[in-house]
Design goal:
alpha/beta, 36-stranded parallel sheet, rod-shaped
Length: 590
């Protein structure tokens, strides 16, 4: 019995001991470590940790290949800002990473999860240009003090969260997943680049997340065409299937260039600081955004720029939202939002914005579905450019007279903004506001005209509201007729209105027509109506008479009555003509 029991124990124990021995042997001397040792003598602790981590046969790998003493990314010992004090045991040669990506024997030994390094210092310039990297590279909170070159590199995913790097030259990079220079959840601390990030012409099938990273321009740009622009991030012509995020503590010392890019979903700048004084802070000109643009969004923080922010000829499929932001710069510098020819299929929100020191808001030729703003976000007079700006409706400030103040912030007169505002007011049921705006447009048009034109404009405004209030002419006409009635009545009582015979002498047996002052005034005033009163009577310019008005005797000269009737005839022709022109729209400029 005892012998059988011993044999069973041995039968079970021996395989277990063999497995434990194999695991111990792997941990100390994996096949990938052996393979690398032949090419890279004197492997450091960090390099061994990396090689053992990526070994395909390592089934007990930790979360990270930790170069330092801690597996916790937020442990102070893993902070790359202190990399100068790290020992050389934390060094990983850049050529070792390159070898892992290109050597067929090494690639065959690498687990699909790829490289996940924490807290290492990369020695030498990492160059994976034109390489198809078959695995993910995650270098978290690492120090990479020399240039990274990834031109036309193909890689499933690249993650440099929380790391400190030099400049990165990666034009035409291809990423099957996402490209991370930082996250927006502060998980690993901010990424820092001490030089330009160039991913121009790149294609990313996931997101590009710059998160809360800090970026600065290089002394010499990679692209000579961008000399003088101080580019911190060059992402011209990138194609991103999902979104681009620069938010929540993001900061750039230099220009962020996304011109001619294609972004599948949203573009976030909320909570970011974009600094490039007297230069371009952001340019998204000619880009196509398949979702929304958020310059500021309440949960993510306010937007801040020092320099010009450009969205010239960009197309946004969703909304363009700025709800809290500052456009800073000196009064002598070009700064503000420049979005001429911008197309936004959704709404354009412009709320709680500070346009400091004469910052410009340029929406020349832009087109949005809806437009909403508040008065505190308006630029200074002369700094609003909205000629050709179209919108189907607006929120926020809706009062026509306050909107006129907004349109009046243009540096010079352009009729289109007035017509656009009037059109939207009319479509929303405010016909009176629309007329007020159109009349204000004519006032602005003639403001700098010569004296004769201003006099004519004043006459048209008073009589028919520049053609927009033709019924005013009827009120004036009624007033002229009433005055004529009084004048003719006084002339009749003073005896200066004489019958027109002998020119129109009636037969002796016929009663002569009576004078009716009101009908007489109508007959004189209306050019196309004949009431036959003027046919029978006319003022005697040589006669003088007297009548009593409100108890006071007044002397009447027939020539004065004659002169007034001449003026009334002229007024009748003028008011009739401009009334017809106003009703038919001949005098309107809308």
């Amino acid at each position: 019995m005892i012998a059988r029991l011993v044999r069973k124990v041995v039968w079970i124990a021996v395989p277990l001991l063999a497995l434990l021995a194999a695991g111990t042997a792997f941990a100390s001397d994996s096949s990938l470590v052996k393979l690398a040792s032949a090419r890279f003598p004197k492997l450091t602790h960090a390099e061994v940790a990396l090689l053992e981590f990526v070994e395909v046969g390592n089934f007990n790998r930790p979360e990270w290949a930790a170069a330092g003493p801690s597996q916790n990314p937020l442990d102070p010992s893993n902070d790359p800002k202190d990399a100068a004090s790290w020992t050389h045991d934390r060094d990983i040669r850049a050529t070792l990473i390159e070898w892992l990506a290109v050597d067929p024997a090494a690639i065959a030994r690498i687990h699909p999860s790829g490289i996940r390094v924490l807290g290492a210092r990369v020695v030498g310039s990492l160059d994976l240009s034109y390489v198809h990297v078959p695995f993910v590279i995650m270098m978290i909170r690492c120090s990479i003090p020399e240039q990274i070159r990834l031109q036309a590199t193909e890689i499933p995913r690249l993650d440099l969260n929380g790391s400190y790097t030099a400049d990165i030259f990666a034009p035409d990079i291809r990423v099957d997943g996402s490209l991370f220079f930082g996250w927006d959840n502060h998980e690993y601390g901010p990424f820092h680049a001490n030089g330009e990030i160039d991913i121009a012409g790149g294609r990313v099938d996931g997101d590009i997340n710059f998160g809360e990273g800090h970026f600065r321009h290089s002394k010499a740009p990679f692209d000579d065409n961008l000399t003088g622009m101080n580019v911190a991030i060059d992402a011209t012509r990138v194609e991103v299937k999902h979104g681009v995020v620069m938010c929540c503590g993001f900061e750039s010392d230099g220009a962020v260039n996304l011109s001619a890019s294609t972004i599948g979903v949203d573009l976030f700048f909320a909570g970011g600081r974009f600094l490039n004084p007297d230069n371009i802070a952001i340019t998204v000109s000619g880009a196509r955004i398949g979702g929304n643009v958020f310059l500021a969004l309440e949960p993510l923080g306010a937007f801040y720029s020092d320099g010009a922010v450009e969205f010239v000829a960009a197309h946004v499929a969703g909304v363009f939202s700025t709800s809290g932001g500052t456009f800073a710069g000196k009064g002598t510098e070009r700064h503000g939002l420049f979005a001429s020819l911008l197309e936004v299929n959704g709404g354009f929100g412009w709320l709680n914005v500070d346009l400091e020191n004469g910052a410009t808001l340029d929406l020349t030729g832009a087109s949005v579905f809806g437009f909403g703003d508040d008065q505190r976000s308006w630029p200074q007079p002369g700094k609003l450019l909205i000629d050709g700006f179209t919108y189907k409706g607006f929120g926020g400030v809706k009062d026509a007279r306050r909107r006129l103040q907004w349109v009046g912030l243009q540096p010079e007169f352009h009729p289109q903004p007035y017509r656009q505002l009037a059109k939207v007011l009319r479509e929303t049921g405010d016909d009176g506001g629309a007329v007020t705006v159109l009349i204000a447009a004519e006032d602005a048009r003639y403001q700098k005209s010569n004296l004769l034109e201003r006099l004519l404009a004043s006459f048209l405004k008073v009589t028919i509201g520049y053609g927009h209030r033709p019924l005013l002419a009827m009120l004036w006409s009624f007033g002229v007729v009433l005055v004529g009635w009084l004048v003719v009545n006084v002339g009749k009582r003073a005896g200066v209105m004489r019958p027109t015979y002998p020119e129109n002498a009636p037969p002796s047996e016929t009663r002569y027509e009576r004078l009716y002052p009101f009908l007489y005034s109508l007959d004189v005033f209306l050019p196309f109506v004949n009431l036959h009163q003027e046919h029978y009577f006319w003022p005697n310019s040589d006669a003088k008479g007297q009548c009593t008005i409100v108890g006071y005797p007044i002397r009447i000269d027939g020539s004065l009555v004659l002169y007034y009737l001449w003026l009334q005839i002229i007024a009748g022709w003028l008011l009739s003509a401009i009334f017809i022109a106003g009703v038919t729209g001949l005098l309107r400029n809308d």
